[in-house]
């Protein structure tokens, strides 16, 4: 498809640059609030994600949790029960004690995702696409949902997106098997019109914060 192969990247690049300019003032305020609210870097200290064709990349996100939150969840004995709940609920937690005060707000309205515009400019992500998973998350989910293996392969054939069909269809309220099916459906129907519809819906989802964690 001509759009998927050529024009999607052009639109991604132009769109990311425009959005970077628009969101720059908000990003500055967000960064200041993060530093005032808790100790630690502005950006999240998380492991690499899996991108197109299984290639790993560093996803940029504003920090919404305490320092070493990802590592602590997997290694701290005090969080063992929480980690089990995390895996059971498709790697999402409705009540996560690791989230900071400012973090709750920026996660609810997806402001923590703004730095991913840099990933788009670098060619690692797209404006619209499937979710980018952690390697261990994907491995464990496939143990739980082995029948989703073919869908995962399809999802990893394209660049992950800042927003996507599953994000505007329920966000974190959707479990992995349904989420991966929705992303696979998007890939089967990639077009300029589908991307435009998802982009138009995204600000509304960001404002009401429905399904966010």
From TrEMBL:
The chain crosses the membrane at residues 12-34. Residues 8-207 form the Bacterial sugar transferase domain. Keywords: Membrane, Transferase, Transmembrane, Transmembrane helix. PANTHER family: COLANIC BIOSYNTHESIS UDP-GLUCOSE LIPID CARRIER TRANSFERASE, SLL5057 PROTEIN. Belongs to the bacterial sugar transferase family. InterPro entries: Bact_transf. Pfam families: Bac_transf. One of its GO terms (molecular function) is phosphotransferase activity, for other substituted phosphate groups. The lineage of its organism: Bacteria, Candidatus Roizmaniibacteriota. This is Undecaprenyl-phosphate galactose phosphotransferase. The keyword Membrane applies.
């Amino acid at each position: 498809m001509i759009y998927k192969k050529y024009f999607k990247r052009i639109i991604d690049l132009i769109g990311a640059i425009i959005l970077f300019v628009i969101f720059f003032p908000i990003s500055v305020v967000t960064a200041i609030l993060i530093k005032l609210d808790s100790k630690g870097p502005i950006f999240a200290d998380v492991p690499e994600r899996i991108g197109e064709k299984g290639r790993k990349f560093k996803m940029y996100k504003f920090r919404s949790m305490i320092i070493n939150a990802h590592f602590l969840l997997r290694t701290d004995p005090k969080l063992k029960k929480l980690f089990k709940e995390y895996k059971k609920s498709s790697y999402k937690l409705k009540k996560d004690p690791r989230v900071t005060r400012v973090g709750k707000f920026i996660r609810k309205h997806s402001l923590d995702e703004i730095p991913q515009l840099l990933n788009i400019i670098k060619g690692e992500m797209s404006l619209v696409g499937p979710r980018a998973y952690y390697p261990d998350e994907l491995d464990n989910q496939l143990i739980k949902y082995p029948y989703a293996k073919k869908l995962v392969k399809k999802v990893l054939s394209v660049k992950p997106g800042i927003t996507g069909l599953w994000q505007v269809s329920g966000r974190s309220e959707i479990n992995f098997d349904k989420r991966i099916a929705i992303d696979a459906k998007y890939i089967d129907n990639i077009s300029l019109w589908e991307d435009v519809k998802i982009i138009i819906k995204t600000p509304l989802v960001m404002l009401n914060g429905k399904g966010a964690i």
